[in-house]
Fold this protein.
Amino acid sequence: MLQNHKCKGMQDMLPDDMLRFRYIEDVFRDCCRDWSYKEIRTPTLDYLHLFTATGTLTPGMLSKVYSFLDWDGWSGERVVLRPDGTIPVARLYIDNLREQKLARLFYVTNIFAFEETGKENRERWQCGAEFFGGAQFVADVEIILLAKEVINKLGLSRVKLQLSHAGLVKALIKEFKLSSSEETRLTDRVLEGDWQALTAAKTSSPELDRLISSLLNLKGKSSSFLNNIRALTTQSSPDFKSSLEDFINITTLLDSMGCNYEIDTKAMQGFEYYTGACFQLSAGGKKVGGGGRYDNLVPLMNGEETPACGFALYVDPIMGLLPSKKEDKANILVKGEELSSEIANNCFTLAGLLRNAGYHTEVDFTGREESDFRWVILVSEKKPSPFVVIDCRQKRQRKAVDAVEIFLILRQE
Amino acid sequence: MNNYYCKVDKFAAEPQINDSYSTTKLHIQKNYKIALPKGRFLSSTARFLSEAGLGFDGYSDKTRQYRLQSTIIPDLSAKVFQEKDIPIQVAIGNYDLGICGLDWIEELLAKYPTGNLVKISGLNYGEGNVHVVASNRAGISNIDELLDRQNDFRIVSEYPNLAEAFALNQRMKKFRVFPVWGASEVYPPENADLSILWEECESSIAAQYLILLKTLLPVTAFLIANRTSLENKDMSLLLSLITEPCQQSSVGITGHDDSIASTSRSPDRDNSNRTERAAQSYWQEKEIKLALPDGHQQAPTAQFLKQTNIAIPEYYDQLLNRRPSTDLDWLGIKVIRPQDMPLQVANANFDLAITGEDWLREHLYRFPSSPVQGLLTLGFGIVKIVVAVSQDMPVTNTEELRYLVQSGKFAPLRVASEYINISDKYLRDNHIDPYKLIPTWGASEAFLPEDADMLIDNTETGKTLKQHGLRIIDVIFQSSACLIGNKDSLSSPNKKGKINFLIESLQAGLS
């Protein structure tokens, strides 16, 4: 017989996984709300052209999207399972919220990308926040601090924040003075993580060589590093200079706020839509999040000029770093000693009262051996005390006449 | 694995063992299977194999045998497939090796970069290239001009995956790919901006009033292997016999050569192209656009249309003219594959088309709200769409099949068909589960019993199916040629009158 195999690259989340998943979600939601971000949700399906039109995902990423013709797709218009969190949010902002000068939005969503071996996840979950309208470097710092706060509150250890600057890298690539198609190809390779392509490309300027070498090989720990870079570059382009100034402003503020980080130019991968500072967060040696500034995305999607920045935390690796979670509420098993209409009625009525009072309550008539319950309440037709309340922690039991007495017992503990 | 797979042995001829190989053969693991191509590479592959010392009796243009046995290596059998099917068959492991054009390998790998398919070696023969072309009336000379000029592209191709990869690599902002069964050269400029097609030589591109924008890949014949077979089976003798001639480059098989290919074009084609040029320039002004079928359906359609008052002499004379002219100055006609017509009518590239009811149904099952509707059953080209299984399978009807599948004999039932959507619906409606569809491009009967358990295909008399040891267990429906139309065209005040005139003319042909 055909086995009910799980679809390759997809994963089940079991109750223990969901406790950790919801914990991450709750911490993330609470932090975002504290920072006045509003929750949104975008559709799972979107048109493929939403992702091709912006020219912001590399062909390598686009070749891994799940795309297909919808039931009315005879016109050849393909739809995709959301391959990225930010672009649909930018679409939502343009369609619905563009009148707002500032929009702070957050979401919890799944994204889909084909992965060849089927051993890695093809569906991944993200907690993301996007800040539309924040033009200044303080907006970049805001999202970095928010992302870090979530990671800290989750209790992850060995947290590392790496900073890079897409504007700086793109300005560097421009210094090569390549044709537009060659420049696109080099950018694609760099975005897909092939930094060798940058060092291998020939330049005629010793200063540029020095700059590339410093930026790719050295890792600064404070804004001083960037000040040094500024001192080394005398002939750089205005784009490079303004990106560097922006980067210095961000790192100086982070320094003054006591936020530790590492400047690693190579810590920027995958998303072509980043235009300014970008960052990567890791914990326990695993990448757990990343984000950055993407000022061109909204105009590329036919919206107005709108500066924006955001980040996403990767739920799947974070779940792997968290210990098992326990339900925080006391739980009660209401157990019918026999299966009769009257006992069942009493069980459901009592369980309803307990739930209203805030207890997680399960009703059972199977006679199974209970485990993991804080309380077990046996329900019978015995007079005058049809209830027996068992305190599983203290290992003792007391008879009760009615619900009032039961609540008194529960509250004594 | 079920019992039916063992029956392949009945097709095996008694092997003729060559003495020089009699000792070596002991080292070869049993049951090698190679998939060999039909069509454009059949004769060159047959010549290549014969020169490599790997004879397969019956592998020639003249015979229509699907199953072959090597006369040299006793345990080596072969099956002949549509070229397009070969990379899939090798990737999924039904065949250890395969020979086919690089275009179909790359078409599979563009969408499914499977590690199961290994490209072993080019075979020093092949024909033509896969090109990106546009109409020479589009007023452009290179791809960058086109990309600068517009934002929304329609790409038509028999290679939809290569087309999509091309569009992504070119960073097209918006594009739609229309997969077609053939005749993709006839779509630009009116019905597509770009066509990605295989052509033997560049001169034939120009002859079709197209301009070459980019050559994507040369189409050489390639030897491919299934990774697991390559890792686990000793196929060294077989591989050395096949790859040695390539390393020596001594195989006298023609590479792609423009001069040879261009001389092979028929005079008819040159004449018809002159007519095409004239017809092409008028296309946009035609108020009603009609698609007529090529291939097997051209002769019966021409026969039928002759009985009406619509004169299309070039079509009636069976010329290869994809834009035949007619005496109705408001009627534009293109000749395309009947399989592609419903989608083309849905997209309003044509107002009307003569296709088969089977292809109309296939389209409507996939796109239930499509604006295509059947207008007239024409009564010719009648075929039955049937469900057939191997004679050895102990079922005589759908119900028995359902019980057999439910009993767990198959994991799952493999169904080969050209009609993916009809098959899907049939299997769902009849609660036959689990099943797996194997899309084919014709000759589904060759898949049974080794590579599929059941087929859903068309048949006129059922004779071919019987010859291949198959039993029909159900007739899904009977299909005739039919006129289809776009609902919006039918309700358009400008078009309604002329469409009704055509419908009446065709109705007159029925009587």
Summary: Residues 15-321 of chain A form a domain with the BirA Bifunctional Protein; domain 2 fold (CATH 3.30.930.10).
